[in-house]
């Protein structure tokens, strides 16, 4: 019997595009929801009368949930079948979105965001698996270009859409909008995705998951409680930090024992993976942590609407959209040690502008700086991912990708917690106003708290008659608090240059070879949340 030749056309036929449509819908939901929520944090503060450090947990809890399910998704896809699990992830994300819209307290909202994250975290890795199986390895590049569309457009359209929904309706609609999209995606997935059989493979490291996830959550909870207590000596701060830290240390010691650990830390024996992971981890803490503060400054200090804040931070996404495809191409031809430092220079230059924030800093300067930062960001992430995975063997790539992507999510969680704690602590240092208390808590209102509240609700000036000079002084103090927080982020960006200096500066052979074409396959980073 004559063997039929395998088709090697790189064109995407109708069947493959139909499957890609399902994955793109899921990607749009999960990526948009992250960027949509970023402009809603100040709204959550006023709606639930909570500190910035507290409402930042709507992002931190989401990213920790993502980090939990990324390693679970590969095992679960083999155990239960890719199509079935993808539909479960879609349903979980959609249900979580509906529950978020019903939240009556910040605690409820954080809990439902975790449910959302458990579903959203599986959508991207499962979607990439589905697309790879549908198209075959010789069409991966074309498929990644299709999947890259929501990744590039999410940071631009998300804040604008979120701002518009909050302005014309209410914050509930940033979650409710996912319901019709989720229902359509579920029906589409049922009709378009091919059936696959469950093929149980390796055992899942449940013990490792029970140590790492609670350990990180407890440690970050202790950090985020610091502004409320004002001292690390308080039991609410040091006890969860100590317990969380002990669990993480125990996980690190334990992870070298199982044959298939949750995170294969043995891969850090590879120098390139280690250097790239450290560079990315420090960078993510600075960039993602400070990224949550950009819309808050425009909303709280400058008194802009949420729609205006979304439009003002859009230049960052536009910059990343321009350089990301170029950086991916250059990563094939030029060693990352020669390109990433230049991208980091752009990020540092953009960050420096925000260390000089005032109450009347030019919007042209700020938007230009965000655009420059976006250019740098687009030239940083893909090359670092490539460097991390390129010299691993074919058998190690899946575990290496899981390790690097989890470090992304953990870094984003730590960055959000650290920056929100610093900002809240700085704002709490403002002078209290004699005789003026918060109607909800009875605590004395500070100058910065009243000034920020008055920017969003001008009618408060009638409720608390204070001289205009006090409001101006409060806003000046708030701008200084943002500036100080950005100085910390700027310092972390500069620190990123240290491990980046050790990135490969010479071309090295790649083990990521496509078995059918012999061409280099680029690893695809999961979206940063």
TrEMBL record:
Annotated transmembrane regions: 12-32, 52-73, 85-104, 110-131, 143-166, 172-191, 203-223, 235-254, 275-294, 306-327, 339-357, 363-382, 403-423, 477-503
Keyword Cell membrane among UniProt keywords: yes
Organism from which the protein derives: Micromonospora chalcea
Residue ranges of the region described as Disordered: 510-529
Keywords (A to Z) from UniProt: Cell membrane, Membrane, Transmembrane, Transmembrane helix, Transport
Protein location: Cell membrane
Pfam family, one: MFS_1
Ranges of compositional bias, category Basic and acidic residues: 510-522
Protein name per the record: MFS transporter
Positions of the Major facilitator superfamily (MFS) profile domain: 19-508
Taxonomy of the source species: Bacteria, Bacillati, Actinomycetota, Actinomycetes, Micromonosporales
Entry membrane topology: Multi-pass membrane protein
NCBIfam families per UniProt: efflux_EmrB
PROSITE patterns found in the cross-reference section: MFS
Entry keyword annotation includes Transmembrane helix: yes
